[in-house]
Amino acid sequence: MKRTLVALLLLTAVLIPISSAGAAKPEAKQIKILQKQVKVMQKQVKTLQKEIKTVNTEAMYGYVLGYVNIQATTCTLAVVADNFQATWKALDTAGITGAPFTALAATPQDDYGACSDAGITRQTGLGLPSWTAYDSLMNYLYGT
Asked: Which DSSP category does 136 fall into?
């Protein structure tokens, strides 16, 4: 019985390191697989970060373009109103009756600072319509 017990203990002592060494191989393989996956994911993260930067840049350009569009539209409407008022004032001065030109041309249309922000000088209170503000607006929009 003692011999059997000693043989069993020796066999157990020999098999334990073999089984743990065999178990280490699958863990090492798993670590290598995980390391490869991490490298792939790091590349994906870099790609996504570049895409986010591009999207943020495009969004900023879109915002600026939208702001310029609103600013130009507001200023255009104010310049058109100025010319309508100058036309009404000229008609009123010429003695054409039948419409309240003076009342309509009394106050300039508010542009909420859009024209001055764009560097466009409005010509309010003129006796005749003028193209000067339109020229400034075109220069602002097309850079000529």
From this structure: H
